[in-house]
Amino acid sequence: MVETDITSAPPVYCAHYVERKKRRCKLTPLKHSTYCAEHAAHHKDSSNADQIPCPLDPAHFISRSKLEQHLKVCNARKYDHSSQPYFKENVNVPPPHEIRTLKREPLSKLSIQELIDTCLELIKYGAISKICELKDTEPVSDEDIDHYRPLFQKGDKVGSSALRHATQQVALVNTLAEFQKSISTDTSLSDTCFVELGAGSGKLSQWFHHKVNDSFFVLVDRQMCRKKADSYFKKQKSNFVRLKMDIKDIDVGGVPDLDNYKKICFACKHLCGGATDMALVSAVQSAQLRETTVLIALCCHHLCSWDLYTGKDYFIKHFKPQQFYTLSSLSAWATCFKLETMQIDDKEVLKNVIQKYQNNPESFIQGEHLVLDRNLQWYIGRCAKNVLNDGRAQFMLNNGFRVQFYRYVNVSISPENTSLLCFKSAAT
């Protein structure tokens, strides 16, 4: 019987560990390598030392010796918008601040006392008046869901995930209508161009189209996505365009056909971190020419960047600049628990644990760690989010917008349940 040395056989899968999926990459490794073509350049592997990121799309890698040939056939080539009138490099990047660079450090680098003090400051901030009150919207009714059901249900059954996302989409559409009523503006949404930045599959635009058929939709995303809404728009013979480009480089005013519309609405669902700030800058620039409305479902504050953040002046009035990334990290505490198992809606429970921490924060120290009640952690994370959101709201107020925050769904549907609504008429 012949024995096989299985240790010398090439691995079935790439050796790269995908942290987000908690497993190894399932692509086949390259010959004479333990990594696939996508991940070989991320690891020190002498057999793939010439692998470099593609200049047109850094998401994939190619051999340096084949670069010239690859650039002629790369799929990303057709997405080069640099010659288009709507392309202006870094047009939506906020101007540099006098405090230009800050280093992101993990919370583990902070001393216990620094963490205690920052948490106390956030609790204190949470007790003061905010820039604008967080309003609750009317719960989504079964009639609302039924109206949009053709968009998300095929057959007799619908999955819980599809229903949860549909509820969020409907809630955002309703929230915009409620905001418009509160500021006594036209709620018809006629003659409006909808711009969905970070569009992904474009589902939010699809929901708005179901409500307003005669509008123009601009879908922007820098990643290649499953274009679920695109086929819907084509089938409906709707006026839409999809642009695969970075938000930082799009001058919305240069998009073809936009001049045919008097109003523009930036509708964005879960626009992560600094992308939200660039969207706000884009909206401010748009408001110089036409009536502008902003609807952004805020999320991922832990991905915020000081360079892109629009609320720097507001932030340094309440916290030290060096605390920016600390607050950004602490904001994740608001979304890292199963909130349905907690008592965040019980104001008395929350009040008691906050008072206990304020009176004797040292009692929460165990060894070399600060161990907090889950309800308190959630509250501190929510306060950190509020600081970052309030800075953005102040930026919009400074630019002549009317601003309002809404809690558009319950936390059981999405822990990231805060939306930012802004409006500025063409005359102001």
Structural class: alpha/beta
Binned, the helix content reads: 25-40%
- Number of E-type strands: 14
Stretches where pLDDT falls below 50 for ≥5 residues? 1-9
List the main descriptive attributes of the protein structure presented here:
14 strands, alpha/beta, 428 residues, 32% helix
Explain what you see:
The chain has helices at 67-73, 112-127, 142-148, 160-182, 203-211, 228-235, 274-286, 312-318, 324-330, 347-359, 374-398, and strands at residues 17-18, 23-24, 51-53, 61-63, 134-136, 192-197, 216-220, 239-243, 263-272, 291-299, 365-366, 369-370, 402-407, 418-424. Residues 1-9 have low confidence and may be disordered. With 428 residues, it is α/β, with parallel strands linked by helices. It is globular and about 65 Å long. The longest helix is centred in the C-terminal third of the chain and has 25 residues, at 374-398. It starts with 16 loop residues before the first strand and ends with a strand.
Short description:
By secondary structure, this protein is an alpha/beta fold.
Q: How is the secondary structure organized here?
A:
Blueprint: E1 17-18, E2 23-24, E3 51-53, E4 61-63, H1 67-73, H2 112-127, E5 134-136, H3 142-148, H4 160-182, E6 192-197, H5 203-211, E7 216-220, H6 228-235, E8 239-243, E9 263-272, H7 274-286, E10 291-299, H8 312-318, H9 324-330, H10 347-359, E11 365-366, E12 369-370, H11 374-398, E13 402-407, E14 418-424
Parallel strand pairs: 5-13, 6-7, 6-9, 7-8, 9-10
Antiparallel strand pairs: 1-2, 3-4, 10-14, 11-12, 13-14
Helix pairs in contact: 2-11, 8-11
